[in-house]
Amino acid sequence: MLSKNIYLILFLVTNIIFTTCAATTSSISCADSKDWQCLLENATQKANDIIEPAHRELLLASIAATYAQLGEHKKALALIEKTDDEVRLGNQFVQASVLGDAALVQGLSNNDYEAKQLSDKASILARSVPSMYERATLLIGIAINQIEIGHLEGAGLNINEIGRYAHGARENQGRAVLSASLAWLHAKMKNIEAAKVEIKSLTKELEIIPTGVPSAAALAYLAAAESLVGESDNAQQHLSRAHKIANAIKHPQDQVSALTIVLDARLEMNTYDRNSGTKLDRDAYALIEKSDKLGNADMSIFALSVGARALAALDAN
């Protein structure tokens, strides 16, 4: 599944809402064990080291969501239960994001009623955020979680809202990312014709936007959508192009962001097996090592989370 964390990466890269925090703990100690739980424990330690309370809660909730996705429901619930509503008062972006992750944790733990309540509350809060791009970022992430827990009515409402933002966006790169995300969400909801319409319009637009994190992200999400509507050859081509763009990015933080997004899309597409597992394993740890060198806690935590999902996927195959 494409991760809600990835939308936070895009937002944090382009709109710094918190002071950048240094990562204080090395992640490479997990490399010898090939243990995805070690990676998430490391991510949790990094998040707990963050001083600013709302920032810390945002990241801990995202880690809890990853634990839930990987079947560690007790750990996920324990992390979510530590979050504090009062800490997030006054910050609608963080509040909506944390509630969206809490909904996923509760839903995957079979607490369906509570999950729906939290999810609907997250959606309402997200729509009240002043910036259109922030609203779209939140609603995409919330919709991803809603699809995963089966709250399809809520997801449908949010997808309609995302469509308004995508089609009304004036800036090419932002519109491309939103349109690609919209295509993937339609495909995930089995709205195949709607997904194909977005895919067709986006394929032309991607030829004119400059390379960078947004273009790598748009291509990665486009590939994920195409893989779900039966366009596997195009999906592989676009994923390969996204990977090349990501590797060519010179700015270290932007490169790590783009590579994290591409790896996440690759996991969604399930384009690996035991024979390619060594490369997936190697790519995950190379990404984590790159993120560690940045000394940025946010990037390191997101890389650790996606790396954990990669190792867990290999264990499952």
Q: What is the fold's blueprint, element by element?
A:
Blueprint: H1 4-14, H2 36-48, H3 53-69, H4 73-81, H5 85-88, H6 92-108, H7 112-127, H8 132-149, H9 152-168, H10 172-188, H11 192-205, H12 213-228, H13 232-248, H14 252-269, H15 277-294, H16 297-316
Described by the principal axes of the CA atoms, the overall outline is: globular
> What is the second-level CATH architecture?
Alpha Horseshoe
| Class computed from helices, strands and strand pairing | mainly alpha
Percent of residues in helices comes to over 70%
Measured between the Cα atoms of the first and last residue, the distance is: 15 Å
Largest sheet: none
Spans of at least 5 consecutive residues whose pLDDT stays below 50 are 273-277
Strand fraction equals under 5%
The CATH homologous superfamily is called Tetratricopeptide repeat domain
| CATH fold naming | Serine Threonine Protein Phosphatase 5, Tetratricopeptide repeat
**CATH class category name:** Mainly Alpha
Query: What is the average per-residue confidence, as pLDDT, rounded to a whole number?
Result: 86
In N-to-C order, the SSE pattern is: HHHHHHHHHHHHHHHH
- Radius of gyration, whole Å: 18 Å
Total of domains: 1
Number of helices: 16
Count the E strands.
Answer: 0
Can you describe this structure in just a few lines?
76% of the residues lie in helices and 0% in strands. By secondary structure, the chain is mainly alpha-helical.
